[in-house]
């Protein structure tokens, strides 16, 4: 992903709320499935990393999520990660809102 594309996605992500929350149990198969479904329908997803373990870095968790879902990391700020994965099955028309704004 190029820097300009990443910057545009960061601007878009500013207005969306976290869709997936990771709790005290960490990265479970259910969380990964939920994130995969969210990426398939919305393409741009915020993930709230709610675990309290200081030894686990949010960037490491975001990288693990990106690998598990074959997505790109747009940004990690504090305990919130933003991921993007384009879905070619979603038909996009010129002038139509992107899936994460619908």
Description:
The protein has one domain (3-84): Translation Initiation Factor IF3 (2-Layer Sandwich). The chain is of the alpha+beta class and 102 residues long. Strands 1-2-4-3 form a 4-stranded mixed β-sheet, with helices on both faces. The chain contains 3 helices and 4 strands; from the N terminus they run αβαβαββ.
* Structural class computed from helices and strand pairing: alpha+beta
What portion of the residues fall into strands of 2 or more residues? 15-25%
Domain count: the total is: 1
CATH architecture: 2-Layer Sandwich
Strand order of the largest sheet: 1-2-4-3
CATH level 1 name: Alpha Beta
Report the C-alpha radius of gyration, rounded: 13 Å
Helix content: 25-40%
Continuous helix count = 3
Low-confidence stretches: none
Report the end-to-end length measured between terminal Cα atoms.
23 Å
């Amino acid at each position: 992903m190029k820097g300009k594309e990443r910057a545009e996605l960061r601007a878009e992500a500013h207005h969306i709320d976290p869709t997936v929350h990771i709790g005290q149990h960490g990265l479970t198969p259910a969380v990964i499935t939920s994130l995969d479904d969210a990426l398939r329908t919305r393409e741009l997803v915020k993930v709230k990393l709610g675990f309290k373990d200081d030894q686990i870095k949010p960037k490491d968790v975001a990288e693990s999520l990106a690998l598990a879902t074959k997505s790109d990391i747009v940004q990690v700020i504090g305990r919130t990660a933003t991921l993007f994965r384009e879905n070619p099955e979603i038909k996009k028309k010129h002038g139509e809102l992107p899936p994460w704004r619908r």
